[in-house]
């Protein structure tokens, strides 16, 4: 017995194969018909779109769902602009917590402060009334903690990255993070995951790529998230970032042994591995490389042995060079064609040059990138300029250059590093601070929709086409909505930049394989 069919009509469909289409019929989770209203077949149910825009739904190609859900319900520090404001926020939040609950906060970014020095562990301890406090910096590659949390894990003092100030990086950060998140119950984790996915659905996102691993989550958290995938929520495609862990990734239900398998850290914490020293850090400091080329090679060989896609987190040019050297080593064993067929991934790929981009083309590497990074931290006077200088800052996140030579792109948010905001990411890619790196709106939209599906080897997804999965979003386009986005023009010469205040489309409904997973106004 077939499921009831649904006819959506009276819309404006983004359907390149049939630009005049205003209606579509959904049957058994697929698009059974496309065309104009006047030719529409009968259906069990009819939905009047009222002129709304209908597009393929978004895919967010890099998220951390539990962290996102906890951030949505926890202490949001993204708006603080000084050490004093941070301490006030901690104090107010801690006052409302029961018992000895841990204060979990996220999003502070000292690079936006006038005085770029965060408070120390003692000050955080006083503000929280002696509670254990874990406050992740925007990049999630470092954190500010209280004396009470340091006391709860005394082994941290011998870990690389420890600093008595309470701002911890590298291995020390992983130690305190594990201690802090141990306080979160299984029920709280599930609630956070469901909240994050429901929020994604409300933004027109039908699928996410979860980047887990032993250093940033745990196996129970990872498998629990995969267990709620598609249960009235977006689908979750999991990546498990453990070196030589392809067999374990497959056992856990992951689609790939990669994601946040760290080849380096982050620019915000000055742990991204760069070839030229940071301008605002320790003299000569170039961050940290966590993998060797031989380890990268062996991981790719391990993935090949288990028939699994691999990948790495690599931000700095030195780290990306190491990763590509590992690819070259794997190619000697497997051949370039086999590597290309696997569509291995690199997450972030921020500091690139022509040689590195050529390597992505040669090995068919998917670049999983976050346009919001440039929007938030690129350009003059922002964090990237402080760390790298203006010239290197403007060369970062070269999405336009990569797209122009055929690098496969899959866009995401790295939430909660940046918010889930797919249309905002499309605008950011089209309005890169460096005009030479801008993409057309159409290309950016494709990277955030079909690009995400192709990154998990689902090549027939992400389009409105006859026989394709009925996965789409319905949008209101407010008066004055960003010119070019509602109709997905190839170019929009009137874009006013990443900070354009004109409104973006608003999601009215998200449909995943024929099932409505979000509807405006529903509880």
Automatic annotation (TrEMBL):
Signal sequence range: none
Database matches in SUPFAM superfamilies: Composite domain of metallo-dependent hydrolases, Metallo-dependent hydrolases
Organism superkingdom: Bacteria
GO MF entry, a single one: hydrolase activity, acting on carbon-nitrogen (but not peptide) bonds
Domain Amidohydrolase: 45-518
Pfam families documented for this protein: Amidohydro_3
InterPro entries: Amidohydro_3, Metal-dep_hydrolase_composite, Metal_Hydrolase, YtcJ-like
Name recorded for this polypeptide: Amidohydrolase 3 domain-containing protein
Lineage: Bacteria, Bacillati, Actinomycetota, Actinomycetes, Micromonosporales
